[in-house]
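Quick start: load a record and inspect it. Here is CAP Gly-rich domain-containing protein:
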Amino acid sequence: MSGTVSVFVISPDTRSERRFDLHTTIEQIKHKLEFITGIPVKNQQIALYNAENDTKPVTSLSDDSRPLGFYGVRDYQFLKVVDTDPSASFTGQLTDTSQVEKFELTDEAYAQRQDTVLAYKQRHKIGRFADASAPASSGHTPHVNIPIGSRCEVETAEPGFHKRGTVRFVGPTKFGNGEGVWVGIEYDEPIGKNDGSVQGEKYFTCKPNFGVFVRPDRVTIGDFPVEEIDFDDEEM
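Running the structure step on this input writes:
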């Protein structure tokens, strides 16, 4: 039996996958989770769930002296961390954008900027800005060199905001008048618009609000890591 377990850790402000030694006590786990969730050890209340959307926990990790393995934790279960005193640590306020003034840039203003991906593609005649004199495709679906499973970044009009994810689909669709190629992407965060389905048609599978479809010219393929802070267990 393996001495470690991989679980998903969820708090009001974070969601990540972590690996823990089953012999680690709950108190030691809480010290590790403070760096991940921002919730002080004394304010943490941890419950174990089989699935993220379950309403009833499998158990509560209530005894700080017990090892993690005592609670029968299995791979890919969920540890939900609740802050019993959010006023002391501002839990939840980091993700509450209701009081934050949203930066908006019109399409016209974005088109005038010279420091954007759009401007770069215009200068180098990439994507939809390619030479219009090139031979027509004669009704055939154009070839798009975007491999399924590739890491990618999606062009956005908001400076400094990177939409990163993994390519899950490339090809024609029934929506969009059935014209051209669309790229289906599973975002790293729930900033998408669907679960890989559009108008009742399933093109790929992901969690709700993690999926999106965009035109190929908005997609840049590369070694884009998930923007997540990670900690070495030995330094916690």
